Amino acid sequence: MKQSIFKFKALALSAVFAGIAFSGAVQANGAKDGTMSMPDYKQWDTFLSGIEKKSGHIRDIYINDIGAKAQKGQPFANGTVTVMEIYGASGTAGSMTKGELQKVFVMYKNAGNGKHAPAGLQTGDWTYSAFDGKGNKLDTGYDGCRSCHLPLTTADYIFHYDKYFANR
Ligand code: HEC
């Protein structure tokens, strides 16, 4: 079943306002990799931006309101969504110039998400989705995403966790 992030977000918020433990409300569903809709993330807080890659890319990372409320040393709350834009880039390290948006990678955390992970590749309750620069879903597998993020057990599977909190 396809679930929209916004549906989950609305559910989470209404549950919080109603004072209901929202984990129970969404646990039965649990999103699978590749099922998220493209979030409308441009107004979100910046997690980290201008990350230059030797491969000729620049990455900008955003986080939604729920994620931005996280405290140093804590995992991100259920309902957190983080989005990484991957731009083509030219020039040399330290002074690269952004080109076209090539890909948008999304991680979404919610209760029950992790139970859909392939054996040995569970990264908490995070799921992964990927889009091209125009917002179309990428036809890709997600085990690769999981393998790379898997070792980050002390940072809630988020790269630059420390850098993010150091900047706040
Ligand atoms: C080769 C390792 C690797 C793979 C594969 C990978 N990532 Fe990541 N991911 C990273 C690194 C490293 C960062 C931090 C940004 C940077 O320094 O380039 C990151 C950052 C992210 C972020 C921002 C949150 C954070 O952890 O900082 C999201 C969202 C994300 N990746 C999603 C995905 C998705 C979705 C896939 C699969 C389609 C994927 N990643 C595959 C290494 C990987």
From TrEMBL:
<keyword id="KW-0732">Signal</keyword>
<dbReference type="InterPro" id="IPR038142">
    <property type="entry name" value="Cytochrome_P460_sp"/>
</dbReference>
<dbReference type="InterPro" id="IPR032033">
    <property type="entry name" value="Cytochrome_P460"/>
</dbReference>
<feature type="domain" description="Cytochrome P460">
    <location>
        <begin position="40"/>
        <end position="159"/>
    </location>
</feature>
<feature type="signal peptide">
    <location>
        <begin position="1"/>
        <end position="28"/>
    </location>
</feature>
<protein>
    <recommendedName>
        <fullName>Cytochrome P460 domain-containing protein</fullName>
    </recommendedName>
</protein>
<dbReference type="Pfam" id="PF16694">
    <property type="entry name" value="Cytochrome_P460"/>
</dbReference>
